[in-house]
Amino acid sequence: MPKEHKEKCEDAADLTASLAKLHIQKRQDYLHWDDYFMATALLSSRRSKDPSTQVGACIVDKHKRIVAIGYNGFPRDCSDDVFSWSKDNSDPLENKNMYVVHAEANAILNSNSRSLDGTRLYTTLFPCNECTKLIIQSGIREIYYISDKYAEKPIYRASKRMLDAVGIVYQRHVPTQKQIIINFDDTLKEESK
Ligand SMILES: Nc1ccn([C@H]2C[C@H](O)[C@@H](COP(=O)(O)O)O2)c(=O)n1
Ligand SMILES: [Zn+2]
User: Fold this and answer.
1) Residue ID of nearest Cα to ligand 1 atom 10
2) What angle separates helix 33-45 from helix 103-110, to the nearest 10 degrees?
3) CATH code, domain with 165
4) Ligand 1 test: best mutation among 78, 101, 125, most atoms within 8 Å of CB?
């Protein structure tokens, strides 16, 4: 190979190597979509005042846009300090299940009458039969959940019977990372960089 041609090849190789160094690759530890949506549901559950079970739900459309979130709580203006969070009181009127709006129902209501046709629900707890009726009627077509701790209860077996009957897909979400730490200080520290 003529000397000048060889030098040009070496220069080209050096240039390619230099350009490669300038090309900044994306970060690899970003939050994947399903973890992102389930983490949003989990974060929402942190708003729940239920001392026993905190549930969060997040509804996502086919363009991966979050259209609504919700958590379990008493209806608007029914004070958490007046209504009881009991679950085994002998007086049924003193039990929370008479009053609590479930997380999935709140998410559907929080969508503010926007069409939920073809959307996906991420919920930290498998939907009960009452929420399943709302899920079906609202047009939600897929469900991701974390816990199904009441699976053997007739209420939850009824949920699965309805979901199977209408072909709504439900599957347990297996997180790709065990935990996500949200530390407000981290963002503050960036400010001082
Ligand atoms: N799919 C569900 C199931 C239950 N909830 C709410 C209702 C209560 O506030 C709580 C369950 O309480 P526990 O019976 O475990 O003491 O979770 C919901 O939002 N969504
Ligand atoms: Zn429910």
Assistant:
1) 53
2) 110
3) 3.40.140.10
4) 125
Asked whether residue 103 is domain-assigned, the answer is yes
Residue 52 — pLDDT band, cuts 50, 70, 90?
A: very high
ipTM: 0.99
The DSSP secondary-structure symbol of 93 reads G
Domain holding 106, by residue range, is 30-189
Over residues 140-168, the mean pLDDT reads: 98
Residue pair 40/58 in contact by the 8 Å Cβ criterion: yes
Q: pLDDT tens-digit profile of 144-157? A: 999 999 999 999 99
Q: Ligand 2: distance of its center to the CA of 187 in Å?
A: 36
End-to-end CA distance of the chain: 52
Are 74 and 105 a contacting pair, CB within 8 Å?
no
Give the DSSP letter string of 51-92: SS---EEEEE-TTS-EEEEEE-BPPTTS-TTTS--BSS-SSG
